[in-house]
Design a protein that fits this description.
Layout: H1 3-9, H2 20-54, H3 57-91, H4 93-102, H5 104-127, H6 136-159, H7 163-170, H8 189-196, H9 198-214, H10 222-253, H11 264-282, H12 287-318, H13 333-362
The structure holds protoporphyrin IX containing FE.
Length: 368
């Protein structure tokens, strides 16, 4: 059996319960949300650790705030990861399961490092309340664990793109059958960096939002808020410049015979990234005024990047004559209606408490 037929045979014989493009759309959307919070966690912990060791009133204050918010952002990153995980398993099942079983041990280690990262961050945040000088090491550990999780999931994603290599990996280049699941076979530093450098763009924009959000509160030092906003804008701008370089570096490592350079989704993503850079340059001196437009633009750019990433996956898999659009479909209206119904209800239920919490934190609850 050749690899193209094997991929068809590995599909779920029951087919999809709804149209593939719907799953694909939701996968790109939820991946964008997932990676946004991953970015906020990585940027947040990194700056919290930096501020902790650098010292000074402003740095310490910001470090405490970022350590606290990183625990929440990590929960959100994990919760928001479940949706793209389910969608990728539905429409790309042959690829995802093979990649996960090739590196089965690492799939388990992934869960462990996510849990350890979570614990370390909590210790970093909570214990410092009693001893502000100590526990910085837990911040460093938290960052290392979360980065390890990122490396593992990136390897699993990349391995899923190259079915032509699987036989070689499963048979140790034709010498033996490898069933240990201990191998990690392909890591692309350019691709990984392309998802990590935006951590500093997004945490910088988060700091601009922080300054804007707390401005109405009389118990916040004005000079501190000025400093947070301006520092955030500077960090975001520098990171966006680095991201342009990293993006092209990754692009150059994509096999030329895929002709991905001609893909319009790539150039839409690139244009949105460049637009964000221009916006960040403009917003340097008035971070609070530009905080919301830039946060919106950044999310749109992440969506553009997520779409380009999906277009790249389709380009890789086209070589094997594989397309999710010809996956057999057996529409199951009942489960689809239940899914959409609970999704919309969930949004309605959480909207009100979020609005109240937002106003409470900003000190503007009694204004409306
Ligand atoms: C907490 C640390 C985490 C980090 C730093 C992280 C980072 C990343 C990165 C960098 C990617 C892009 C990989 C690539 O395309 O090369 C990614 C994708 C993804 N992550 Fe996470 N992630 C984390 C947690 C999780 C968790 C807990 C789950 C599952 C519950 C998860 C599920 C996914 C899925 C499903 C994808 C997309 C895979 C695909 O489309 O091929 N992630 N993550």
């Amino acid at each position: 059996m050749d690899i193209n037929s094997a991929l068809q045979a590995l599909r779920d014989p029951l087919g999809l319960p709804f149209f593939p493009w719907v799953f694909q759309l939701l996968m790109v959307l939820t991946f964008a949300l997932h990676i946004l919070f991953v970015n906020l966690v990585i940027g947040g912990i990194a700056l919290a650790v930096y501020g902790h060791f650098k010292g000074g009133d402003f740095n310490k204050h910001l470090s405490k705030a970022l350590a606290q918010v990183s625990t929440i952002n990590l929960s959100l990153a994990i919760v928001l990861a479940v949706a793209p995980l389910l969608f990728v398993q539905v429409i790309y099942d042959p690829f995802w399961y093979v990649s996960n079983s090739l590196s089965a041990w690492w799939t388990m280690v992934f869960l462990l490092v996510v849990a350890l990262g979570f614990l370390a961050n909590y210790v970093f945040y909570l214990k410092r309340k009693k001893n502000p000088q100590g526990y910085g090491i837990f911040g460093i550990l938290g960052l290392i664990f979360v980065l390890c999780a990122g490396v593992i999931i990136s390897v699993l994603s990349v391995q899923a793109l190259v079915p032509g290599e699987w036989l070689k990996w499963y048979t140790a280049d034709g010498n033996d059958l490898v069933t240990s699941g201990l191998g990690l076979y392909r890591f692309e530093l350019g691709r990984f960096s392309h998802f990590m450098v935006p951590a500093f763009i997004n945490i910088g924009i988060f700091m601009m939002l922080y300054a804007w959000y707390f401005r109405p509160r009389s118990d916040f030092d004005r000079a501190y808020l000025d400093w947070v906003g301006l520092t955030g804008a500077r960090i975001a701008k520098i990171a966006a410049m680095i991201q342009v370089v990293v993006g092209f570096w990754w692009l150059l490592t994509v096999p030329a015979d895929l002709h991905f350079m001609r893909n319009p989704f790539l150039w839409i993503g690139v244009s949105l990234g460049l637009l964000l850079l221009v916006g960040l340059m403009k917003g340097q001196h008035e971070p609070e005024r530009y905080a919301i437009p830039l946060a919106t633009l950044s999310f749109v750019a992440i969506l553009g990047m997520g779409t380009a990433r999906e277009a790249l996956r389709m380009t890789y898999l086209r070589v094997f004559e594989y397309s999710i659009y010809d996956y057999p479909v057996n529409v199951d209206w009942g489960s689809t209606a239940l899914f959409l119904g609970t999704f919309v209800m969930g949004l309605v239920v959480i909207a009100y408490p979020i609005m109240i919490a937002f106003k409470l934190g900003r000190g503007t609850l009694n204004e409306s």
